[in-house]
Batch of 2 targets.
Target 1
Amino acid sequence: MARRTKIYEGKAKTLYEGPEPDTLVQYFKDDATAFNAEKKAVIDGKGVLNNRLSEYFMVGLEQIGVPTHFLKRLNMREQLIRRVEIIPLEVIVRNFAAGSFSKRMGIEEGTPMPRPIVEFSYKDDSLGDPLVPEEYVIAFGWASQQELDDIVALALRVNDFLSGVMYGVGIKLVDFKIELGRVYDGDFMRLVVADEISPDSCRLWDIETGRKLDKDVFRQDLGDLADAYTEVATRLGVMPSNV
Ligand code: C5P
């Protein structure tokens, strides 16, 4: 097979040119980073788990009518995706207080939100992805007002879907981050869920015990990250060995 042309290397994934002009190949690495890459490690098998889990969530979203960039999984570590124009925002939905929200607001981790909160960070590693108000998003032209309304609606649909799926296997969806992209079809533009949805980008707590099953295990040195992700994959019935 011809060597793939690398077009972007991120902290946890690498993107290559795909077989068609409007496609890319997304490769999931085993690298784990936290605190804007101040903490780093290689976690054997993480890329395989996240590839499979992200496929599972993206396919489920498509099945309920939420468009995504996902086309098909190619192998244990790679998936074929649509080439999209990435909106430079991290869209975070919070159901319970945790992480940077708890720190910023002084609200104890696990406190339920009055309603799901949607917030935006500007995607810029050198700035540490700062939290930005909607005003900035519009004023700096990162998205239009209409797109922003659509992004919030989409993020809340993803939240309902993921919360339900996780609840079904005894896991509380505390919060998550998604990224959105634009796909153009002639004059028509639509928003799609892009990047990945995995325990790297969600907070997942066991409902019974409160055990953390997400990247906080790595951030907070709570144990073996691959074990936690394997637990999520096993409960969802998507262990890599089942593919
Ligand atoms: O750190 P914070 O509490 O703001 O994170 C909220 C959610 O967004 C968490 O699930 C976290 O894993 C995710 N996140 C992410 N990538 C970032 C920042 C946050 O996936 N750069």
Target 2
Amino acid sequence: MIWTVKSPATKKVIGTLDETPLERAEDLYDNANKAFLTWSGLSISERVHFLQKLRLSIVEQLDDIVKVIHDSTGKVAVEALTTEVMTVVDSISHIEKRAAAALKTRKVKTPITFIGKSSYIEYKPRGTVLVISPWNFPFQLSMIPIVEALVAGNAVILKPSEITPMVGVLIEQLFEQAGFPAGLLQVAHGGKELGAALVKGKPDFIHFTGSVRTGKIIQAEAAKQLIPTLLELGGKDPMIVCADANMERAVQGAIWGAFTNSGQVCMSVERVYVDKSIYQKFVDRLVQETQALKQGIAADSDIGSMTFPQQTAIIKAHVKDALEKGAELIAGDHPDQWKDGQMFIEPMILTKVDHGMAIMQEETFGPVLPVMPFETEEEAIALANDTRFGLNASVWTADLDRGKRIVSRLISGNAVINDVIITVANPYLPYGGAKEGGIGAYHGDVGMQNFCVQTAVMVDKG
Ligand code: ADP
């Protein structure tokens, strides 16, 4: 079936593609399993040779790639460049060193009772990795798991989001241009039925990024076949601003953390807790800066459009629930003023919020920031931890010991002191969530090892 794709921001047609029939799932696995036999026999530096060609292709076609991402998502072009394309380029730049360090065979101690024996751990590729990716960062969240899975020696099948399918077509072309062996990276274009068929098709590992709801469905299905999974799910990330924080930096951090990609970021700042003594000043500055943001698709815009129309209904429900329970909207349009199908949602600030409101408990995934005062460090930590999620968190203070003390008590897969989100951009740090934030991590040594089977070996000289 031919699929016609429109831009969420302009509603103009941006491309067409062929949907992959469900019956193709078996062929895809056959091709991948064949490609795996040769690829897994190459050394890391031989694999990196192909990846560096891919990196070069990306750099040579930066403008075209940025355009496809921008047209597909409605995010502003500079965001597509910095948070998606450059993050991928950076990740590939470091890939050889990272893979060599993470995947090298490790000698470990052997207890004296096993006299004469030696021990080591070896990391081997798993086979065919199924990567299922979402629409909010369709390039980055497809490419980074693909690159890590490939360098570890696996073959990959990518099922990109049906909301941004032209990015999947782009990825397919980039791998073709870089001359990767046939069948090593295949892209399956389709929706959740195709995703489900691919999960049932017996991958050796599943790397999923998306909603908690779908993550649970995939985990349940994978459990039936005992397929190992890595799940990158949702967030309700807190930001704690202490009285001694650099106010201007914290305000800018909150703005960027909450409104980049119109808040459609699993690690976006979704709640701010501010020390009571600086609360009013912080809120006033936040409102000024929020109202100064420029929204649109022009090159100098700060914020683009929403990508997924249904998301606006969730944002609306959360904001209205908060307003009905006593919150105050002090920046942005009231949801009742939004037009049907409106994709540019003005950034909003909410005050007088509490944890009885959905806006403080559920993932909103939109350009809305609730702000709440706190009196003691203890209270701030308790509020930050009062959530089903645990993906990222940030603490803002001039006292780094205090920052580290607070971070050590937050239940969160990632945390930042005096900045937001950035842990994901450091390929040496593992990235993954606690609680409903997800299971497992990629990036870093541990992340790279997750794409491998670990064999523990003990040797007797005989
Ligand atoms: P979002 O993209 O809003 O986070 P989802 O979690 O539903 O939403 O989608 C993420 C990815 O998971 C998409 O590529 C989607 O097609 C895929 N997907 C959705 N449902 C399933 C399913 N039951 N099995 C496999 N993949 C699925």
